[in-house]
Amino acid sequence: MIDPVADFRRILLAALTTVGAASAADAPVDTSPAVTPYRPSVSTPAALSVPGWVEVEAGFQNTRAVDPLSRASLPYAVKLAFTPDWGIRLGGDAVVRQRGADGTILTGLGDTSVIVKRRFEVDSASALGFEFGVQSPTARAGIGSGHADLTLNGIYSSDFAESWHIDVNAWATHLGAVEAGSGAWQPGWAAALSRSLSDRCGVVAELSGTHQAGKASTSQALFAASFSPSHPQTFDIGFSKGLTAASGGWSFFFGATFLLVQLF
After folding, report:
1. What is the tens place of the pLDDT at every residue in 163-177?
2. Which of 24, 39, 66, 164 is deepest in the core (most CB within 10 A)?
């Protein structure tokens, strides 16, 4: 017995399959190198950017707290990997504008950091990383500390369950400027869990904190989303919230990561 409905379904399914296969075959494959965003989370992955390419991160961040009452900045980072395991980056705040609790407004360049990074592959899904950084006091008084800081950072990164990724950082910063009764070392930690929703979209959630002898510990939660229109560029947007009185208030941010130029 002929079933016209069933026949129509089979013909429609065959037609859709043919069109889908043809579209997939005709769709251009993006073979361009992909960015390796470090922003907007506090933690960084063990992976480096594409060797030979200058990768740039730039964004805007606005924070509301107690003192300063508000702080708006343009954070940036310029990264260059020499090999898949060795790289360097320059970062800081291009512009900072902050309002103190007394109403004073300060505007200027932020402090500048130079960081050398080494990656150690564990297996195809995970890696370790080590960073050594120096923060130079390029900011004016009231915006920066006025002294150089040294930071050692250990990293563990891993992919799991197909679309999930984790980055765990543990660092120690030797502060150049120390208040009376406070320790010179400030340990910190950060753990970020991210998930790819598709080839272009992803989300991340992170907890981080610091501790310094003689001062109250800090901690914050961060949430962000990202969109990659193509391999060489990614856009992000999100917010963070201090979890203790010493951690500050709300912070809103957005930015982009993109490949600028290939040097070698």
Report:
1. 999 999 999 999 998
2. 39
Burial call 195-216: b when 16+ CB within 10 Å, e when fewer: ebeeeeebebebbbbbebeeee
For 60, 133, 221, 264, the CA distances from 74, given in Å and listed in that order, are 5, 20, 21, 29
Among the residue ranges 11-25, 129-143, 240-254, the one predicted with the least confidence is: 11-25
**Verdict on whether the full-model pTM lies above 0.85:** yes
Q: Is the CB of residue 189 less than 8 Å from the CB of residue 178?
A: no
Best CATH choice for the domain 38-262 from the list 2.60.120.620, 2.40.160.40, 3.30.1360.200, 3.10.450.750? 2.40.160.40
